[in-house]
Structure formats: C-alpha cells, structure tokens
Write a structure and sequence with these properties.
Elements: H1 3-6, H2 12-23, H3 25-39, H4 42-50, E1 55-61, H5 78-90, E2 95-102, H6 126-143, E3 149-153, H7 165-180, E4 186-189, H8 191-194, E5 208-213, H9 230-243, H10 245-250, E6 254-258, H11 272-293
Parallel strand pairs: 1-2, 2-3, 4-5, 5-6
Helix pairs in contact: 2-3, 6-7
C-alpha cells in the first residue's frame, strides 16, 4: 500500500495502525479484506489478458503471513488473497511472480519496504534474515506444485550498504528454498535498488534470473522532459547497458522487473496532456530497447489513484 497507489499519506504500517484505532478490529479487518478483494478481481485478469500480457508480478508484505509480535507463526489467511490472484491469472493463461516487497526489519530505507525509520535493519540482525528464510520456506511448500507460479522474487530492491551481505543471503536462501522446491525460478533483484551486482562474482545461482529495475528520471516530475533527442535515446540505452553488464558478460538471463514513468493528473496539472504524451513516447522508446536486447519486463505499476 504505497502512498501513491492508495492516496493515503504515510506508510502501510502507519496507515493500518491509524485505521485500526479509528475503526476497531472488526471493521478494520472487514475493510482490508474487501479492499484487497476489489483491488484485483477476475475482471482485472481478463483485462491484462486483453493487453497480451503473459506474466504479472504480485507484490506483498510479509505482514500478511506473520506478525512481529508473533514471529514464525504462519497466518494461513495470507494465502487467501495471494492464491486468489494467482488462480484468477492462471485462468487467463497468465503466470505470476511472487514478489516479497517488504521483509522483516526492512531491507532498504525507502517507503516501499514499509520502512518508517529509513534504516535497513534487515542486514544488521540475523533474526530478521532467519524469519525471511522461514517465510520463503513456507511459501515454497505452499506453491511448489503450482505450475502457474512463475517463481519467487525474494527481495524487492534490496539496499545492502556493505554489498557482500546480499549475495551471501541469496546463497543461503537458495539452498533453503531448493531443498523444498527445486523447480521454481528464483528472480533475484540486484543491490542498491536493483541496479548493481557488486560481490556477486563468487556465487552460483542455478535456475535463477537476475533482475534490474530500469527507471528513467526523464519520466518523473524532477527529471528533464523526454523529447526523443538522439542524446536522450543514447542515455536510455546506456543506462540499461550499465545495469545489465553483469548478466550480459556472463550470459545470464535478465529480467527488467520494474520500470515506467509517472503520469500527470489533468485535474491538478494544466499541462497534463503534453506531460503524458512525453511519458508515452519515453515508454515506447524503452520498449524498443527491450525488444532490441530481448529483455522481458514487468512494468510498475498496473493500478494506482491516477499517477
């Protein structure tokens, strides 16, 4: 529940705490159950199929499956909505990648890991890492025979300031998950918000895909608007080439797990039409690059409040 998706200020954790205080437990639980249900239904899956899409990346918070005050006790209810979305997509011939977007202790300092402190404590406390491994083992047990689950994206946009801890954790997680489910793909995000691969050279990750996130500042309000100049097009391709060098040098599979612009809402921005046309042009140029290099992608984001 990132703020630009829902329109509520703050983090998912604080939003939920505030609404629990105001609504009481019964109404709170009813509201969020219905909110999750209506956010993605079979109609959404049919719409994605109409666009020709073959795969969807489903982000979720560890708190759907475990409570901080009751660690390592699985909440089976967490599988209800996740399984419902996977099933809806499978009926339309669409695969699902399971993306843990928020991990215990927070794996980066940003709002999208539900971090209210900016400190990525996940890397400093083994118990947070132990809980993440435990939860992925539980997820692997549940989905190991599901052919429509395209695999597991263990950490969204990790940010390990010391670099070596991320591949070491992936190596540990790989062994734990493979002991339960040797068949599903691991979709591994690069470090520093999925843009670099320092310290990965000494590890082997079979049956894995290495994910970069290829956002361009030209698609955001603070960036220089995209005007399709030769220099801008060269910059777009160069940024992809930089992020994918590790994979390309080693002949490893690549996945662009996130990318996309931020659009303007005409209710608030008088130049919205021009801004959005530039965003569409930027998106088209990036797609041409991905077609050129044969890169599969999942865009961020399918649904929000209008941005």
């Amino acid at each position: 529940m990132e703020n630009f998706i829902t329109g509520y200020p703050g983090h998912k954790n604080t939003i939920r705490a505030s609404m629990l205080e105001v609504m009481g437990k019964e109404k709170y639980e009813f509201f969020f159950d219905r909110w999750l249900y209506w956010f993605f239904t079979e109609a959404d899956a049919r719409f994605l199929k109409s666009l020709g899409l073959k795969c969807v990346r489903i982000p979720f918070n560890y708190r759907h499956f475990e409570d901080d005050m009751n660690p390592r006790v699985l909440k089976e209810s967490g599988f209800d909505h996740l399984g419902r979305v996977i099933d809806a997509c499978s009926k339309e011939g669409i695969y699902s990648i399971l993306d843990m977007h928020a991990l215990p202790g927070c794996h980066n300092g940003a709002w999208h890991s539900d971090n209210v402190t900016t400190h990525a404590a996940f890397w400093d406390h083994k118990d947070f890492q132990d809980r993440a491994v435990w939860l992925w083992e539980e997820l692997a047990r549940h989905y190991k025979d599901d052919a429509w689950a395209a695999g597991y994206n263990p950490i969204n946009e990790p940010a390990d300031s010391l670099h070596y801890r991320l591949p070491a954790f992936y190596s540990r997680l790989d062994k734990a998950v493979r002991a339960i489910d040797p068949r599903h793909i691991l979709w591994l995000d690069g470090n520093t918000y999925s843009v670099e691969w320092k310290e990965f050279e000494n590890y082997e990750f079979p049956n894995s895909v290495f994910s970069l996130h290829d956002y361009s500042t030209m698609g955001f309000p603070s960036g220089v608007p995209y005007e399709a100049t030769p220099e801008q097009n060269a910059t777009l391709e160069a940024q992809y080439m930089r992020k994918s060098k590790f994979q390309r040098d080693r002949g490893l599979p690549i996945w662009n797990g996130e990318w996309g612009p931020r659009y303007a809402n005409p209710r608030y921005e008088p130049d919205a039409e021009a801004i959005n046309q530039a965003c569409y042009n930027l998106l088209s140029q990036q797609l041409r690059n991905y077609d050129k290099w044969g890169v599969p992608w999942t865009i961020w984001l399918y649904k929000d409040i209008g941005l």
